[in-house]
Amino acid sequence: MSGFLVVQTDFGLQDGAVNAMYGVAYQVSPTLIINNLTHEIEPYNIHDASYRLLQAVSYWPAGTVFVSVVDPGVGSTRRSVVAELSGGQYVITPDNGTLTYLAQYIGIKEVRQIDEEIQRLPGSSESHTFHGRDVYVYNGARLASGKVGFVELGNKIATSELVAFSLVTPLQNENTITGTIDITDIRFGSLWTNIPVDFFKKWQVEYGQRLLVKIYYQDVVRYQDEVVFGRSFAQVAPKEAVLYINSLLNVGLGINLDSFSKVYQIGTGNDWTIELTQI
Q1: Closest by CA position to 52, among listed 61, 39, 65
Q2: Looking at the domain assignment, is residue 12 inside a domain?
Q3: The S-adenosyl-l-methionine hydroxide adenosyltransferase C-terminal domain covers which part of the protein (predicted)?
């Protein structure tokens, strides 16, 4: 194993939860290299947890173990799983939809169900509300350090059995592209869509070209304007909107030196549709 352990939660850093998880991991192996993906996922937001994994996983080497704990069903009958991805990375997480984006865009080779009663931090059997510490990071540290093998963590289950939420497929015709707003670039408020750069290549969209942009919330128009396609934000004046290709090679929509999501009160998810039309 690589010795890399990457942790994501919705816990925040205002109390000792994340620090306790680090402590458990270092007790398993003091030589682990532990990194944070983020601990600022909105509480219970499984969709965003899934997307943030997609944003980061492929840039880490094979053998890296990701632990993602956004777990509104902790202590219930929901399963705990470990997935081996096509790139050789591993993800330990509740089976609650967190693996949806990875299954769709990265690929999952194999999944095993972790027995929470056996594969857990010694002395934690009476704790039922902190599986992030007692099950997920404990087993993540064991796997990342090579103290346990992937197949030893549990019985194999079919990837088709994983819990998943629905993803909308972007569509393109001669004059119109439609997609969804998957997530925001949180600090800067840009909108990240599921529209791939290949759609723009097929249209042969050039920098400086304007497209008509409409954003709908449940079929009600919330934004409509002509927006320039730019290489970066610097290609437009401050406070001007711009279409661009983001770091995941999908179409983004932002405002130079301002937050598009705040200015226009735009949200994310399948209810938010973006439509691009050639002018």
Answers
A1: 39
A2: yes
A3: 179-273
Half-sphere exposure of 199 (CA within 13 A, CB side): 25
How do beta strands 80-85 and 90-94 pair?
A: antiparallel
Q: How far, in Å, CA of 18 to CA of 139, rounded?
A: 15
Continuous segment of H or E residues that includes residue 253: strand 250-255
Tokens of residue 79, six digits:
């399963």
Assigned token pair, 40: 């600022």
| Pair (122, 197) in one structural domain | no
State pTM to two decimals: 0.94
Query: Domain of 225: which CATH number?
Result: 2.40.30.90
Residues 79 and 105 in one domain: yes
Instruction: Please tell me the distance from the alpha carbon of residue 223 to that of residue 235, in angstroms, as a whole number.
Output: 21
Which residues are paired to 228 by β-bridges? 210, 242
CA 67 remoteness from chain centre: 12
Q: What is the pLDDT of residue 196?
A: 98
Domain boundary among 99, 130, 161: 161
Three-state secondary structure call for residue 55: helix
Helix axis angle for 17-28 and 137-145, nearest 10°, is 30
| Residue 166 domain flag | no
The string of pLDDT tens digits covering residues 230-242 is: 999 999 999 999 9
